[in-house]
Structure formats: C-alpha cells, structure tokens
Amino acid sequence: MQRLTRLALVLGIVGVAAFGVLQCQGARRVAIEVADRGYAAPEGEPRGPEYTGPDASRPHLAVRLEPVARGLSRITDVQFVPGDPELAVVLQKGGQATWIDLAKGTRGPLFHVDVHTVSEQGLLGLAFHPNFAKNGRFYVDDTPDVHPDVTRIAEWHTDDVRTGGAQPTRVLLEVRQPYQNHNAGQLAFGPKGMLFVGFGDGGFRADPQGNGQDPTTLLATMLRLDVDHPAGGKPYGIPPDNPYAGDPKIPGEVWATGLRNPWRFSFAPDGRLVVGDVGQDTWEEVDVVQAGDNLGWNVREARHCFPPGATCTAGGFREPVYEYGRDDGNSITGGYVYTGRAIPELKGRYVFGDFATGRIRAIDLPAGDPGTMPIPTATALGKWPVLISTFARDARGEIYVADYGGGVLYRLAPASKPPGGDEP
Q1: What 3-state class would DSSP assign to 143?
Q2: Strand, coil or helix: 199
Q3: Minimal CB count within 10 Å: which of 303, 329, 403, 418?
Q4: Residues 353, 385: contact at Cβ < 8 Å?
Q5: Mind listing the pLDDT tens digit for each residue in 253-280?
C-alpha cells in the first residue's frame, strides 16, 4: 500500500515494524488495529489543515474542526436523536452506546452489548425509527460475542434516551460472516420509511468467495426492509417495490449488489442513496445507488477492471459518481450532503473523508447517469491529523467528524470564529 502519513501518528506507539503488515493487509484494517492499541488526541482543535498532494491543485475551502465531545473510545457511529440537534448517541467499537447532550456537556449510557472487536468487528451502526418520538424504537448493527461470527441487526426500545436502560426487543436478521473484516455496519431509513442495511463482501481480500457477484447471498449487498409490517414468517416485510421481490433466484430483501464494503452511507435531500464503498488495492469510490444496481465488485473496482490488468466490461454495472486513487487516500468514509447554515459554501454538497489520511473533501453530486459524465472536481477541506471513522449530521444540517483514534467528536465549522465565539 502507498502513503499512510496519518498512520505515523499512531504507529509510533507500537513501532515501525507494523508498517510491514501493510504489505498484506488493507490500510483500513491496519489503521484500526494500530489505533486500537492506544492513541491520545491533542487538546484543543487539531493542527491543520494541510493541502498536500492532489489537494494542492484543487479548489480549497478553509474550515475548522471544533471539538464538541472528548473522552470517547473508538467511535464507530454518531446519530442525532430525531428533532434534537443537541442530543447525539455515539457508538463505540467495544459495545458501549453513549448519549451526549452537546449543549449541556452531559452524557450517560444508553446501552451496552457484548461484541467481538477483532479487526472491523464491534458495535457498528444505529438508526432511529422515523417515528421514534412516538414509538421509541431504534435499530442496531453489531457483531455479537458468539461463534461462528455473524452480523446481527436488532430492534431496540427506550422510553427516554437520557435515562438509558434501552432494551432489545427482537432480532431482525443474522448473517454469517466468513472473515472479520468488510462487515460494513451502517443502518439508515430511506424516504419511504424503509430500513436500509449495508453488507460488505465478508472479507478477507479480493472477495475470495466471490460474494460480490453471487446473487444468492446477502453479503456484498444493500438491503431494504419494512420493519413495520412483518410478513412471510420473518420479523420484517419485503417491500413490494424492492427490485427482486418475488424473484425466486435473488433474495427479496436485496436493493443493490456488487458492493465491497459500504461502511457509511446516507440519503441526499432529494432521496438518493449515497454510498462510500471502501476499495481494495487502487481505488475508493462514491456511488449513488438505485434499485437493482450492480456496483461491479469484484469484477470492477470503481471504474476500473479488477484485478488491475484484467479485461472486463462496464456493461450492466452502475458506475461511481466519484473515485480517487492511492495518492489521495486508502479508505473512504462516506458522509452527508451539507444542509446547514454555518458554512454557506458547502450548501448542497456531499462531504466525505478518508479514514487513513484524514483528508476531507466535498463534491457536487451529478444529477444524471454517472457513466456518461466526467468525475466531478472535488473541493479540498484539508488534511487533518484524525482517523475519520464516521460523519454525522444534526437536525440543523451541520456536519460532525469523529476521530476513531483520539475519541473526539468535532463539528465542521467556519474557518473564522464569529464574534463572541458562537456558531450561527
């Protein structure tokens, strides 16, 4: 693997011998394993940004990373309680879910689960039901402490986030994981109230089981479930407008196929599903995923044949809207379309980052078929000394950045502080 300058900040803890591991494992997996051994974030705002490498020739937008919560451990997901821009739930890899009131600076436990934490396993994702204010339901993605390894999607309930004591009510789905990486982990509700679940190819590298192009498996797919109307003996229903509903050859839960590791995804204001799919050897990609799409893995990596040098065709595959190579980063962390007011220059743009290099960028999502359009020009928001594990967006549309290594949650803020130091 090529440049991993961000890793130098944590690799020093365990010695440069760890660099040798990079020759046979993915950058994301190594960064996780090294950071798990301990790293303390500096006080105050992180030093930066830098505009190096390809960022030097891109348009720049100066921003700050303003710390809003510290003292967390290995952050994997951050979700704001619906309707409350100050109340967030932070997931930590080891199994702890913590609520944090950002306005008051208070926090407490929401729940804890026993999970496997090797490599990319752990407590990975949470989504609040669209009607959470009335029904208190939310959904959790984790890798429970059981053998063999599985990904579990479960429904939980709480009467009040701040009082904790949330309890699981039912397991929706368990899927066997052949390896300890490429578990994905994101959950999100779509515009019609259906739950989307992202699954990676199951690992280890290069999809040895061929799950990416196997239409019979739930691995390497995006699922779409109706959690409100169980049917067919399952604890969920299959929406009738799913692309393979009623198809005897492909599971009806499947919304799209050919994904490698859709670690983070979100919905744009216009309802489109935007996925950051983590790459293998050469390319990272952003995809706008529609019903029935095949994203091409493991025949293609982004817009390129896989393995490099192989012959393939783009026919039948959905092309990514954006891609970047190893001179830019090693492990994409999908983000959100910015809908806030604090940084007007970002309005309507998709903000994402790279886990291993700490680069943050923004792009305009093309409106048409990406296969007929050039790759959009990215705006550089700088390279930061953080391991960007996830982004979050509050009810006001402001975006937050989580540092996996330092255990800090930052708010993306204007470069210059307003009078009095308060954000608009």
Answers
A1: coil
A2: coil
A3: 418
A4: no
A5: 999 999 999 999 999 999 999 999 999 9
Residue 19: phi, psi to the nearest 5? -60, -30
Asked if residues 144 and 150 have their Cβ atoms less than 8 Å apart, the reply is: yes
CA 70, chain centre distance (Å): 20
Per the listing, tokens 């012959």 go with: 311
Share of the chain above pLDDT 70, in %: 91
Per-residue exposure over 141-165, b if at least 16 CB sit within 10 Å of its own CB, e if not: bbbbeeeebbbbbbbbbbeebeeee
Q: How do residues 359-418 score in pLDDT, each as one tens digit?
A: 999 999 999 888 888 899 999 999 999 999 999 999 999 999 999 999 999 999 999 875
For 79, residues 6+ apart whose C-beta sits below 8 A from its C-beta are: 88, 89, 91, 126, 127, 128, 392
Is the separation of the CB atoms in 326 and 3 below 8 Å?
yes
Half-sphere exposure of 189 (CA within 13 A, CB side): 20
Is residue 35 a contact partner of residue 370, using CB atoms and an 8 Å limit? no
Exposure pattern of 373-409 as b/e (b: 16+ CB <10 Å)? Answer: eebbebbbbbbbbbbbbbbbbbeebbbbbbbbbbbbb
Burial call 82-105: b when 16+ CB within 10 Å, e when fewer: eeebebbbbbbbbbbbbbbbbeee
CB contact at 8 A, 251 and 218? yes
Residue among 405, 413, 279 at smallest CA distance from 338: 413
Q: Where are the alpha helices (DSSP H) in 84-185?
A: 132-135
Q: Is 305 exposed, middle or buried (0-12, 13-18, 19+ CB in 10 A)?
A: middle
Please name every residue paired with 127 in a beta bridge, in sequence order, or none if there are none.
Answer: 139
Distance CA 388, CA 403 (A): 5
Strand ranges in 231-383 using DSSP code E only, listed in sequence order: 254-257, 264-267, 273-277, 284-289, 300-301, 304-305, 322-324, 332-337, 350-354, 359-363, 379-383
Predicted model pTM: 0.93
Q: Give the residue with greater pLDDT, 354 vs 34.
A: 354
Query: Residue 231 class from Cβ within 10 Å (0-12 exposed, 13-18 middle, 19+ buried)?
Result: exposed
Using CA atoms, how far apart are residues 292 and 271, in angstroms rounded to an integer? Answer: 16
Rounded distance between C-alpha atoms, residue 153 and residue 313, angstroms: 35
Tell me what pLDDT residue 21 has. 31
